[in-house]
Amino acid sequence: MTCRFCNNPVKTEFADLVNSPASNSYLTAEQLNEPEVFFPLKVMVCEKCFLVQVDEYKKSSDIFNQDYAYFSSFSTSWLAHCKKYVDMMAGRFGFNQHSLVVEVASNDGYLLQYFKEKGVPVLGVEPTANTAAVAIKKGIPSVVDFFGVNLAKKLVSEGKQADLLLGNNVLAHVPDINDFVGGMKVILKPNGVVTMEFPHLLQLVLNNQFDTIYHEHFSYLSFTTVSKIFEAQGLQMFDVEEVPTHGGSLRIFAKHKEDASKSIEKNVASMLRKEVDAGMLSLDYYTNFQAKVETIKNNLLEFLLLQKKEGKLVAAYGAAAKGNTLLNYCGVKKDMIKFVVDANPHKQNKYMPASHIPIVTESVIREEKPDYILILPWNIKDEIVKQLSYVKEWNGKFVVPVPKLEIIS
Fold it and tell me: Which of 330, 278, 286, 280 has its CA nearest to residue 304?
């Protein structure tokens, strides 16, 4: 393969998770007896720009379609994070009724609703029609399309330019990252601001977060590499923050290179130095990750086999994409985990891809009283432990697999 940013031939392997179905391809009961399509899940690193990436084995248009199962509004901690962001941005940059906030991958309106409450005009861009329909019902104008240069030009021709262009957990999801960032350059007003949030590759490596690798994530990003991608399209970083979401993310702030109204904050140089000091500009940094992945697999299987031998009931919480990566790489099936609970009704009464573990409502926890609950979306483990604190009534315990196996009483 060639690098999706710099077109350099890519030959160095970062991690090989063998094969897996698309992470959000949940199954109906009727589909359980049908063949499933598996795709290679091998991650490579570019020797020139250090972009970590998977090939586009499954087209983004097939992943992000009208049956997309991820709705952002089902996590209370995520909503709180977004509201805090909106308050911060409105205070820092003074967005008001004369501004336009455009969000790429606006999903079900989970974030733009808070700008709307402040009277700030908003526009969502969302390729999955079912989530966009929910946003529209909330009064969030939404364009159902993939973002890039062509769509940006179309919106500008309609008089829609962004004072703020934002995207949360979307930069990693685009196969043509140059076209995507190029679209930002087109739609951003001369003094406009871009913010993007994405899981930090530094944290992925540091905390063994291999389960965040799946086919929806085409790229795994460092600040150094993202800065180069933006610079190639005429955009410049002027600030960066570390935020705790998704196991440790970056929030970047970008502007037009020509925009002299914003000073470059010291955080930019500090983050670049942090990545250099961590070794992220050396191939050695990327070639030892596979061994850590295999350690997590072995520890989880050892735990599950012991509980099965002792007759304990193990359930899981959160039918998250990262959970499917973990279960499928480890080869876990419904004989080891009886069911998965999820709050999203669009996933309930379906089955996890490949493992065929049924997805049920939370009421089943009280009915079945599992001895252990494996928390698959470990990034919101505190929220889940608090929500399910009643399992202590029967001495139930929680298990977190990443960054290392941990049992929480």
Answer: 330
C-alpha span between 259 and 235 (Å, rounded): 9
* pLDDT for residue 184 is more than 70: yes
- State how far Cα 157 lies from the chain centre: 31
Cα 353 from Cα 59, distance rounded (Å) = 18
Longest Cα–Cα distance of the chain, Å, equals 66
CB 125 within 8 A of CB 104: yes
- The whole-angstrom distance between residue 1's C-alpha and the CA centroid of its chain comes to 23
Question: Which long-range CB contacts under 8 A does 139-148 form with residues at least 24 apart?
Answer: 140/106, 140/109, 140/112, 140/113, 140/116, 142/106, 142/109, 146/60, 146/61, 146/64, 147/104, 147/105, 147/174, 147/180, 147/183, 148/176, 148/179, 148/180, 148/182, 148/183
372 — phi, psi (to 5°)? -135, 140
What is the rounded CA–CA span in Å between residue 290 and residue 52?
14
Q: Average pLDDT of the chain?
A: 94
- Say what the pLDDT of residue 243 is: 96
In contact, 280 and 224? CB cutoff 8 Å: yes
Give tens-digit pLDDT for 221-271.
999 999 999 999 999 999 999 999 888 999 999 999 999 999 999 999 999
Q: Starting at the edge strand that comes first in sequence, how are the strands of the sheet with 314-317 ordered?
A: 359-360, 340-341, 314-317, 372-375, 397-400, 406-408
- Judged by DSSP in three states, 325 sits in helix
397-400 vs 162-168, strand pairing mode: unpaired
Asked if pLDDT for residue 364 goes beyond 70, the answer is yes
Instruction: Answer whether the bond into residue 358 is a cis peptide, omega within 30°.
Output: no
How many angstroms separate the CA atoms of 35 and 29, rounded?
A: 13
Q: How many CB atoms lie within 10 A of CB 116?
A: 18
Tokens of 316: 């899981």
- DSSP notation for 206-256: HTT-GGG--TT--EEB-HHHHHHHHHTTTEEEEEEEEE-GGGSEEEEEEEE
Please check whether residue 275 is in contact with residue 224, taking contact to mean a CB–CB distance below 8 angstroms: yes
**pLDDT value for 65:** 45
pLDDT at 58: 54
Quick one: pLDDT band at residue 68, thresholds 50, 70, 90?
Answer: very low
